[in-house]
Description:
The protein is of the alpha/beta class and 271 residues long. It has eight helices and seven strands; from the N terminus they run ααβαβαββαβαβααβ. Strand 1, helix 3 and strand 2 form a beta-alpha-beta unit.
Amino acid sequence: MAEPYVPREYWTKVANACSQDEGNGLAPVLHPGVPDWYNRIIDVLQHRALLRALDIAKLETGSKVLDIGCGTGRWLRRYDDLGFHATGIDLTAEMLLLARKYRTRSPLVGGESCRLPFKDASFDAVSDITVIQHQKRASQTQSIAEMLRVLKPGGRLILIELIRGEGNHIFPLSPGNWIEAVTSSGANLIDWFGQEFMLIDRGFVNLARLIGRKTDHKIMSPQRLSSVSISRNIFWNVRHFTAQISARIDPIVSQISPGKLATHGVFIFLK
């Protein structure tokens, strides 16, 4: 049975587990325990989506941006490169330490998204990239209200959040429900689009899970454990191919497929 999900404890463990990682700070904020090449693929897709969202939002150079759940600071560093004045806030001190390790220059603040330690109308834009999806339903509503509170009138809110799946620490909403959650708190939708379709890769993963379920009931003997290790290597070797191909065709897929077929939605709102 999975342990109860307590956000601060969970993300502290993730940060500590990745503290010796000499890569680029992606594992703690994307997929811990997977090959680094996979996280780099997902980061490229998310970065492309964020740039598209920023273009839609039409933020001016020098805008004050608050990044919710800044983690290891990957978006703060990119905001700095784009000429924005960014501030990051994260629930855990351990993540903020990693942000400094990866040379994040922006101001960093410890705090919860549902109780932001900032005055009303402090920022020109607020970004929330795969963060609120990790909060339980009641906290999601409160966090969205707080993000809008610290946003200036006329400011932009950018969300990139899961729109499918479920898990011990993920609580996605449908695109319509994400939009309703924000507009009911006082913002207007500018636009939204699907992000991370990865259709071939998702098909392979679903097939692997189906095969895995058929073997879960077997006794895990030493021989069986060895077989699992070999199977994992095969899984990631095949996925290296399916993920790369999926990522390459994602821009085309996004043009011809409904956004709801993606794993994430990218939402841009105006306060």
